[in-house]
Amino acid sequence: MTRRQHFVIILILGTLSTISPFSIDMYLPGFPAIAKDLHTSISQVQLSLTAYLVGISVGQLLYGPLLDRFGRKLPLYAGLAVYLLASIGCALSTSIDMLIMMRLFQALGGCVGLVAAQALVRDLFPVNQIAQVFSLLTLVIAVSPMIAPTVGGYATIALGWHSIFLILAVITALILVGVYFVLPDGKAPDTALSLQPKAVLGSFFTVLKQPQFLIYALVGGLATSAPFAFLAGSSDVFMNIYHVNEQEYGWIFAILSVAVIAPTQLNRFFLKRFTSEQIIFATLRYQAVVGALLVFGTWAGWYGQYGLMVMLFLFLCGQGITGPNASALSLAPFVRHAGSAAALMGSFRMGFGACVSAAVSVLHNNTALPMVGVMLTVVVSGLLVLLIGQRAVQHRSRQEDVNAPVAEVML
């Protein structure tokens, strides 16, 4: 593979992965306008975000087996077509219930990009390059928070919030063209894999029995769900508490997205000196300390708008490091079931994200505490899972070493 081919493939995989981030980030500045136009509250509009995350979580489980059975491209075409139709439905929504339903269908279609991109990384690149490739993908994905809210803010002011979903439909149509003409096919269809429920569940169970996958998929799911608390609560915090407008909020979101981009490239540097396991452990401890200061300072009233932005920036720096390493460690043990593993990993992340966004909506109290409190909770939970999981695996390994000579004697 030439450097040019390498660049083009990563770019297309990155754009596939950005479908869902764009779908989430781009309409955030439009929350107040949507609430006013549909005669509802911002907390109800936040549920459309929760519906989207639920759709991603469920949809990835469906696409995993399909990508293994039919190859990567056919399910991609089908999912992206569903996304296009649902995006138009979102633009035509006349009630919050209709918008929530269309967002669910939009997620069920668009999430194929997340699963297919991760499975194709496993197909097209050697194992020792996966973490670095995921870091590059994260760089492409991280650009979307810089662009999407800003574009969404200007589009809402100039054309109304409905235009956001039409723009998303056009972007996805362009991605579909790139997938068809440029992206390699990846792993061939495996006709031996059955799509019967029993067989599908068996594939998922095979993946879940792998301790390395289970630990790092759970850790990654918990730790990387922290930004979803920010996504769910930031528009309310900055636009209703600090009274910034749609365009200003877009720029705030863009500035904070740099916290994800820069560490992504630092991760490539760290990987030359440390293992992914060491990097994740250090990053989660860092985020736990910063998160505790963020929560306590918010409760004590230490931070104004700019102080809160600084602390959020410092906290979010960890996301660009934890995500790629957790993904690489989760998928490394698999070849045949890479699609199912990617689906489960993505489902964990979006499932936690849906719970987190719903929690911020339920705990809404016109302060920033629900947002920052949930962010700290999920990071600390991820750190605890990592500590407990690693000790359990080490204990199991020691037991196997002790029992091995006994088994040999008995034989």
From TrEMBL:
One of its GO terms (molecular function) is sodium:proton antiporter activity. One of its GO terms (cellular component) is plasma membrane. InterPro entries: Efflux_drug-R_Bcr/CmlA, MFS, MFS_dom, MFS_trans_sf. GO terms for biological process: xenobiotic detoxification by transmembrane export across the plasma membrane. It is a multi-pass membrane protein. Residues 9-393 form the Major facilitator superfamily (MFS) profile domain. It holds the Pfam family MFS_1. The chain crosses the membrane at residues 7-24, 44-63, 75-94, 100-121, 133-155, 161-183, 213-231, 251-271, 283-302, 308-329, 341-362, 368-389. It is found in: Cell membrane. Keywords: Cell membrane, Membrane, Transmembrane, Transmembrane helix, Transport. PROSITE patterns: MFS. Belongs to the major facilitator superfamily. Bcr/CmlA family. NCBIfam families: efflux_Bcr_CflA. This is Multidrug effflux MFS transporter. It comes from Spirosoma foliorum. The lineage of its organism: Bacteria, Pseudomonadati, Bacteroidota, Cytophagia, Cytophagales.
